[in-house]
Amino acid sequence: MSYNVVMAVNEAAPATQNGSSRSGTYLAKAVPTDEPNLSRIGLPMMANNPAGFMTGVTVLNVGTQSAHVTLTYLDNMGNSVGTPQTKTLDANASFPFYQGDAAQGLPSGFVGTALITGDQSLLVTTNALNTSSKLFFTYTEP
């Protein structure tokens, strides 16, 4: 079996005025080439400033052709919230979706999930930061 993607990412933010900084690490899961396209991905935690938490999502097209990607936010009942975001990504291109972006129409205080769909294999990672406590974490899907 061969694999399309294997990587580890270390992230660090510049030090603030008081000298503190934030960092995190995540491992991308390998995508076996004999699996069907990983083109429907659920993100279990999205936030737009509830108690200071903000999330950001980066989508990487690991397919061989342009990917048409849609990100839809869902509340805890599975209802669509805000404005679904669409983006066309060239092969090997990525795009960040930031949940604090006013164009996405998420209400302040939103906590929910998201569903990403596309027509090529995708790799997705999510960062979350609490702006008050400076707690930082990442998770990778699928």
Question: What would your notes on this structure say?
Answer:
The protein is mostly beta strands. It has strands spanning 7-12, 23-28, 40-48, 53-61, 67-74, 80-89, 94-98, 110-117, 122-130, 136-141. The strands form three sheets. Strands 3-8-5-6 form a four-stranded antiparallel sheet, with no helix packed on it. A four-stranded antiparallel sheet has the order 7-4-9-10, with no helix packed on it. A two-stranded antiparallel sheet has the order 1-2. Strand 5 and strand 6 form a beta hairpin. It is globular and about 40 Å long.
Keyphrases for this structure?
mainly beta, four-stranded antiparallel beta sheet, 142 residues, 0% helix, disordered N terminus
What's the SSE blueprint?
Blueprint: E1 7-12, E2 23-28, E3 40-48, E4 53-61, E5 67-74, E6 80-89, E7 94-98, E8 110-117, E9 122-130, E10 136-141
Antiparallel strand pairs: 1-2, 3-8, 4-7, 4-9, 5-6, 5-8, 9-10
Radius of gyration (Å): 16 Å
Q: Provide the β-strand percentage band.
A: over 45%
Major β-sheet strand ordering: 3-8-5-6
- Quaternary class: single chain
Parts with pLDDT < 50 across at least 5 consecutive residues: 1-8
Largest sheet: 4 strands, antiparallel
Helix content: under 10%
Q: Name the overall outline.
A: globular
Distance between the termini: 19 Å
Q: How many beta strands in the DSSP annotation?
A: 10
Order of helices and strands: EEEEEEEEEE
Average pLDDT works out at 77
Tally of DSSP helical segments:
0
- Tell me the structural class: mainly beta
